[in-house]
Design goal:
Radius of gyration: 19 Å
CATH architecture of the largest domain: Alpha-Beta Complex
Order of helices and strands: EEEHEEEHEEEHHEHEHEEHEEHEHE
Number of helices: 9
CATH superfamily of the largest domain: Medium-chain alcohol dehydrogenases, catalytic domain
Helix content: 10-25%
Largest sheet: 7 strands, mixed
Distance between the termini: 10 Å
CATH class of the largest domain: Alpha Beta
């Protein structure tokens, strides 16, 4: 098999040839059809997330075909198409798992962080955390971004609240371009905030029916009912708090963010709230994939060969990607 391996943080990925792995008990081996490139992968490569298992194969938005089943696996067959998300294992016995909040598990394992991920021709994953997919192989690059950009975006959208009609999205990348469509399908108005002067991203947002698109340091034409921050820029927190109305909520949807600068209490007062979204649950995945089936989303994907993984990461880092980047082995 071929794999793009991170040997150490802040180094380029290296192409390696490895033996095709055998799945262990409770595991599946997949032939990877596509793996989207997430900003979390970039944070891992850039050394911004603590204690990854190194060397590691990144990638956690995987669409693959089941090639082999480990002992004890039920509910999957060779030839099935499945998705592998960020959450690759939860303990099932901590207080959070018992409450149905496996996204906060005390002993989780994450795909492409604790166990090898999908920047490869093959991957082994825990069968219980593989998501059944019904799709032709040709659609794999379009489906892959749903498995993190879509899932985290969906959890963030739920956290914003059902009553949030005017919704601001800060950072119009892979997650936001999917959330914008989901929000529109729910009858909401979307206000898109981009890097200052990024007219292309603003035009992209308007093409997806955003009611307004402008620079992230600008106020929207109307006070927002809620805002979701996808860009990893802490200075957007006070900007979003300024943009929302009294009693509104600001959701931080990323796993990493630069330090939030000091801001006056007045911005938080009047019962504005600031919350974060961490990881995802399998229930989120089932709910979102059902929603996407009922409300098909236009997934904008720029595809790269597996050997171009470093190029895809560089384009993501520089903000050159419209929608999502996807590796196609």
């Amino acid at each position: 098999m071929r794999a793009m391996v991170l040997p150490a943080a802040m180094l380029p990925l290296e192409m390696q040839r490895r033996r095709i792995p055998a799945p262990g008990a409770g595991e599946l081996r997949l032939r990877v059809l596509a793996c989207a490139v997430c900003r979390t992968d970039l944070h891992i490569v850039d050394g911004e997330l603590p204690l990854p298992v190194l060397p590691i194969v990144p990638g956690h938005e995987i669409v693959g075909v089941v090639e082999a089943l480990g002992a004890g696996v039920e509910g999957h067959r060779v030839g099935d198409r499945v998705g592998v998300p960020w959450l690759g294992h939860s303990c099932g016995c901590c207080a959070f798992c018992a409450e149905g909040r496996e996204n906060l598990c005390d002993a989780p394992r994450f795909t492409g962080y604790h166990r090898d991920g999908g920047f490869a021709s093959h991957v082994v994953a825990e069968a219980a955390f593989c998501l059944p997919l019904s799709m032709p192989e040709a659609d794999a690059a379009r489906i892959a971004p749903l498995l993190c950009a879509g899932l985290i975006g969906w959890r963030s959208l739920k956290a914003a609240g059902e009553g949030a009609h005017r919704l601001g999205l800060y950072g119009f990348g892979a997650a936001a371009h999917l959330v914008a469509q989901a929000a529109k399908a729910q009858g909401r108005e979307v206000y898109a905030f981009t890097r200052p002067g990024d007219l292309a991203a603003q035009a992209f947002a308007r093409s997806l029916s955003a009611a307004w698109a402008g620079d992230a340091d600008k106020r929207p034409p109307e006070p927002l009912d809620a805002a979701i921050i996808f860009a990893p820029a802490g200075e957007l927190v006070p900007a979003a708090l300024r943009a929302v109305r009294k009693g509104a909520r600001v959701v931080c949807g990323g796993i990493h963010m630069s330090d939030i600068p000091a801001f006056p209490y007045r911005l938080l007062w009047e019962e504005r709230s600031l919350v974060s979204v961490a990881n995802l649950t399998r229930a989120d995945a089932r709910e979102f994939l059902d929603f996407a089936q009922a409300h098909p989303l236009r997934v904008h994907a720029t595809t790269y060969a597996l050997a171009q993984a470093n190029e895809a990461l560089a384009d993501l880092r520089a903000g050159r990607i419209e929608g999502a980047a996807v590796l196609v082995p």
